[in-house]
């Protein structure tokens, strides 16, 4: 299969989110021993429909062999390549608080290719620890140097809301192009940089919507 | 405006997510003193396009007055009603670990109408504290009684992955209909119950995608 981005067409964000979900479903299908799947198999697993899957895949060019289905392993490789996670991304965590430690306590980011290579923290007592789970801890003043030395591409902001804006600017100034913001603070990034906000309430609102409309 | 769910039509999940975003943008527009907005105003603020907004709103019936725009306050009320967050939802947090404390440390859930009314924890030493930030702490054995007494509708699972399935079953058995799962554990819920998984890696994958395709 040729699974490449068809240029010039803007791919909807919802399609990108679904690609991530398909990849997770394929992982489970593979674990359960499946080697070839149809779009119906994936649809059933992901709770969507085959037409949606084919439409999403169509953004990236050619399809699997008609009548045969998709080879799980190849399809997963193609999706990972399309998402840009066929490689590893060096990330920095900013803020060693409860949320930061929660993120460090899970291997689900690393499993998806996002490696936290450095932690930045403004509390000097924490910084003095030197490292946490073998990940080096730095003060905020070291950001410029460390981002460049470690090849940090993505910054994860898990500080208190009032410090988020300053941290975002420091990350951008240091050359970080992607930012995941866990605070409710509205952050604007310059053209060429990418920002995503994590907002747990949005998922709760999805639940509230479904519970209200039943 | 009549902003009600048009029955029988399945509303896409992406539309629901966008409604949550529109609501946040309207909040900011209102704070900046705007009383009437066009779909272009909302689109600019949210980074989408007016046609998408009108399409999303169309799922819920009638529109604002043509040529005049939307009254921010009314539109927000209508969106909140559509999402089912024109009321408050009693939630229970299960797991008083780093992530749990991070969730308790932010007011962004409460601001959106999701009130954590009880915390369940299996560590008896923590449970003995009795409460945290005035929210009562209970052992797992108290779940059935507390869910019913407190009118808990939504359970937030922030335990270790190996305990997530058991916790989900206990919540469902106790009568909880909505579950927000922060663990990577795959949970299946019976018909009538609603589950959403929080997966931070999906947002990172969205960033990786954009950074790869630039």
Can you offer a commentary on this structure?
The structure is a homodimer of 214-residue chains. The first copy, chain A, is built from ten helices and nine strands. By secondary structure, the first copy, chain A, is an alpha/beta fold. The first copy, chain A, folds into two domains: 13-83, Arc Repressor Mutant, subunit A, CATH 1.10.10; 89-201, Rossmann fold. A seven-stranded mixed β-sheet of chain A has the order 5-6-4-3-7-8-9. In chain A, strand 7 (154-157), helix 9 (161-173) and strand 8 form a beta-alpha-beta unit. The longest helix of chain A is centred in the first third of the chain and has 19 residues, at 13-31. The radius of gyration of chain A is 20 Å and the shape is elongated. The model of chain A has no long low-confidence stretch (mean pLDDT 90). Chains A and B meet through helix 1, helix 5, helix 6, strand 8 and helix 10 of A and helix 1, helix 5, helix 6, strand 8 and helix 10 of B.
Keywords:
10 helices, 2 domains, Arc Repressor Mutant, subunit A, Rossmann fold, alpha/beta, homodimer, two-stranded antiparallel ribbon, 214 residues
The gist of it:
Chain A is of the alpha/beta class and 214 residues long. Helix content of chain A is 46%, strand content 16%.
């Amino acid at each position: 299969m040729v699974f490449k981005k068809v240029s010039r067409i803007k791919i909807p964000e919802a399609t990108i989110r679904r690609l991530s979900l398909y990849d997770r479903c394929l992982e489970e299908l593979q674990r359960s021993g499946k080697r070839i799947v149809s779009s119906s198999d994936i649809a059933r697993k992901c709770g969507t429909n085959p037409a949606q899957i084919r439409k999403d895949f169509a953004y990236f060019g050619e399809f699997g062999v008609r009548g045969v289905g998709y080879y799980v392993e190849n399809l997963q490789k193609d999706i990972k390549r399309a998402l840009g996670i066929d490689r590893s991304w060096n990330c920095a965590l900013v803020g060693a608080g409860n949320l930061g430690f929660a993120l460090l306590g899970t291997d689900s980011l690393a499993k998806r290719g996002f490696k936290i290579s450095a932690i930045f923290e403004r509390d000097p007592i924490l910084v003095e620890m030197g490292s946490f789970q073998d990940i080096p801890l730095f003060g905020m003043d070291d950001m410029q140097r460390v981002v460049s030395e470690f090849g940090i591409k993505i910054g994860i902001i898990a500080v208190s809301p009032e410090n988020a804006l300053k941290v975002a600017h420091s990350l951008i100034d240091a050359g970080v192009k992607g930012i995941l913001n866990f605070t409710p603070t509205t952050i604007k990034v310059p053209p060429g940089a990418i920002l995503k906000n994590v907002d747990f309430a949005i998922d709760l609102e999805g639940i509230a919507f479904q519970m209200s409309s039943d």
